[in-house]
Amino acid sequence: MASLICLVTKNKLPDLIEIQAHNQREGLADSLVIFPERTHLNYRLHDVAGVELKYEAEYRGVLKKYYSGQKAVRKDATVLCSLFVSSNKSFFEVKEESEVRRFFECNYNFLKNYFGEHKVVDAVVHMDERVPHMHFCFVPITKDGRLSAREICDRRGLTLLHAKALASIRECGFDITKSDDTYSPLKMAEDLKRNILIKEVQKLEEKFADCKNIDKSIKSIDEIPFKRSKMPFRDEMVSLTDENFAKIRNVARFGVTVQGEFDRLARENERLRNRYNDHVVLINELRVQIAEISKNRDELLREGMEMLKVIKSHNGLNELYNYVKNALEAKKTRR
């Protein structure tokens, strides 16, 4: 049974670099998540295909044109909403390439009309991961010009979005039976964050290896032979050969340069630690969101079952229900 998967994540300004890098494959092809040999199959549906976008610049451009709030945007505000749109793996396995593209085009056309094309930052389809999917990114500006992801992507809004998206994709002729909002969002978020962090950790490890080489050089200095001598009317002095003195002087000069790099790496490490903590908070928020959406879906299913009971208990409504049901099955058979 094929499902329409539509998940939303909310991103703050510092997250835009990561989202942009992942969506545009900016040196982040990791075998844990991405299959580089299929990256050339990816394509963009928004704007001109192949053009690299700067998400922060695009966001500020939308903000400049359509934001009419009286106050400056808060530093911790959600500035970009990203929708992950896909279906079951089995759904794509039986579809031709042209049908897969039409599936994403139909979803893109619906979403850009639903949220407003002027708010869209990017819409890119990834064919090089486990399951084909689209990242649809837009700036959450309300109709009256405020920046409010909480209002646009609240529980009620997401429920309505899933229902309308499902109806839209079915109108395009795809046999999608339900809208699913529980497709491993934690795995998706964790894969993205893990992929980015792995690359950053690798860079730090390379720099740490350089520091180890410096440490070896310093230890070799400790092993330089010397002798002490005490001159008349002077303190005790250390005698070195010209070669050993030059070696110590070069290490000292290099040490001054390395100290600045070490301080920078310490700051970078602290920044990564803070970002990791932010990712943990995001994952916890996703868990809460999944629980709420699942609860809401169960409530809607119960309401639907009650309505079905009422329909079947009423002769006239029951006849109408059976007529519509048979018509839909006949239409499905003709396909």
Rg, nearest Å: 29 Å
Give the SSE order as H and E letters.
Answer: EHEHEHHEEHHEHEEHH
Q: Overall 3D geometry? A: elongated
Give the helix level as a range of percent: 55-70%
Per CATH, the architecture of the largest domain is 2-Layer Sandwich
| Order of neighbouring strands in the sheet with most strands | 2-4-5-3-1-6
What is the averaged pLDDT score?
Answer: 79
Are there runs of 5+ residues with pLDDT below 50, and where? none
Name the beta content range.
5-15%
Characterization of this structure:
With 335 residues, the protein is an alpha+beta fold. The protein has 2 domains: 3-182, BirA Bifunctional Protein, domain 2, CATH 3.30.930; 184-335. 58% of the residues lie in helices and 14% in strands. It contains 9 helices and 8 strands. The protein has helices at residues 16-23, 55-66, 89-93, 97-115, 149-152, 155-171, 185-222, 242-313, 315-334; strands spanning 3-12, 43-44, 78-87, 120-126, 133-138, 178-180, 227-230, 236-239. The protein has a 6-stranded mixed sheet. A hairpin with a 5-residue loop joins strand 7 (227-230) and strand 8. The two termini are 17 Å apart. The model has no long low-confidence stretch (mean pLDDT 79).
